[in-house]
Amino acid sequence: MSVVDSRGLPWNEPPGHFGGFSKYLVNEENEGSKYFDFRISRYPIKGLVEQHTHEIAEQIFYFISGTGTVWYGDEKTIVGPGFTMFVPPTINHGVENTGDEDLVFIVATSPPNDVPRN
After folding, report:
1. Taking the complete model, does pTM exceed 0.85, yes or no?
2. Which domain holds residue 97?
């Protein structure tokens, strides 16, 4: 077991994410996790994750604060605090902050290294 003060971890702008930043709380680089990564993301007004798919990864999104629009396959849904979205492999998905404050959410991805995006 390890306990990390995430306040010291860096924020980064992942590929295909525009105007928003993610902080990897648990991944192979900082914790040695081989089977998933866990991150918090913060997107300002109009920040977005372009619509994309992952070949083998599953993802779980949990929305903490703010309001946004998510795309899931052919569906579009407004989300806010307390909403959860599960995305299986090959399903087109994306997120946009359509509210009037930062959109903050947590994402868990397994396996963690399914980087290629379509």
Report:
1. yes
2. 25-110
- For tokens 């860096």, the residue is 10
Cα–chain center distance at 84: 11
State the pLDDT at residue 99: 98
Give the tens place of pLDDT for each residue, 64-95: 999 999 999 999 999 999 999 999 999 999 99
DSSP 6-69: GGGSPPB--TTEES-EEEEEE-HHHH--SS-EEEEEEE-TT-EEEEE--SS-EEEEEEEES-EE
Residue showing tokens 């963690």: 112
Q: Which amino acid, one-letter code, is at 115?
A: V
Q: Total domain count for the chain?
A: 1
Q: How is residue 73 written in tokens?
A: 């396959």
